[in-house]
Amino acid sequence: MKFLILSLISIISFAQIKTQFLTEFGEFSNASSFTIASNGILYVSDVNKNEISSFDTLGNKLKDVGGFGWQSGLFDQPVDIFANPLAVYVADKNNHRIQQFDRNLNFISSLSTRNDDFEKSFGYPLSVAVSNQGDLFILDGENTRVIKFDMFGNFLTSLGGIDGGNFKFKKPSSLSVDSRGLVFVSDYKTLNIFDSFGNGLNKVNFNHQIKSIRIIFNDYVIVTKNSIHKLIIENESLKIEFLEVPDVKVSDIKSALIFNHKLYLLLFNKIKVFSIVQ
């Protein structure tokens, strides 16, 4: 696999990590995204049912909310979901908004700016994440960029748009933010890395399209069409680990994350859980 690293980060090593199947749970129609908060609650979005669901780490379902519609708490293709211990954020694609819920999936508020000035306008949101500082990042599918708002909904900056230069997006699909405020955006076969101010720092090119990036604490997991990778970034260097998963077609995986030394795989109809063999 070919990688291209720009700026500060260089590859120092490759490794392969084996996993062992533990359990599976969930009955989804067409799961699109999932995430897990530090309190161990896992949240899943389903674009066919237009629902979001919560589970504990043992796979016990806690709650379902949603259904098709335009009113608060309803969805028209909830394509992405992000959670922290206090709130859950859903990219409600065809309603052109981000909906916010509390950790028990009670509706709190929504953000929609499609009819505002172009600078802060977004439509068909594809992905959403919130930094530790409370800044909200939205992948704007209509204008092919990422927009950053503060915790009060005030526009701050944009990334990867028409003025993005070498970091101008072509076909972005997902984003995630790490604990340092670095922003990771997948753009077809390229992973773009920005600082918290929106300055492009690095690029990593893969041979195949990136389907998902999930960052939970310091575990960075990327799924492409043919492989699962764990990235470790430290001391301005990048270590790439390949995760081997038995009896699962990587092409069937929608997304993946690591939590408490376990690998969670989101398929269209269920979640599979594996232990990571050291």
Explain this structure to me?
The chain is mostly beta strands and about 280 residues long. The protein has a single domain, classed as 6 Propeller (Neuraminidase). About 0% of the residues lie in helices and about 55% in strands. The chain is built from no helices and 24 strands. It has strands spanning about 10-25, 30-35, 40-45, 50-55, 60-65, 80-85, 85-90, 95-100, 105-110, 125-130, 135-140, 145-150, 155-160, 170-175, 185, 190-195, 200-205, 210-215, 220-225, 230-235, 235-245, 255-260, 260-265, 270-275. It has an 8-stranded mixed β-sheet with strand order 18-19-20-21-1-24-23-22, with no helix packed on it. A 4-stranded antiparallel β-sheet has the order 2-3-4-5, with no helix packed on it. A hairpin with a 4-residue loop joins strand 11 (about 135-140) and strand 12. The radius of gyration is 18 Å and the shape is globular. The two termini are about 25 Å apart. Mean pLDDT is about 90; it is low at about 1-10.
Summary tags:
single chain; about 280 residues; mainly beta; Neuraminidase; 4-stranded antiparallel sheet; globular; disordered N terminus
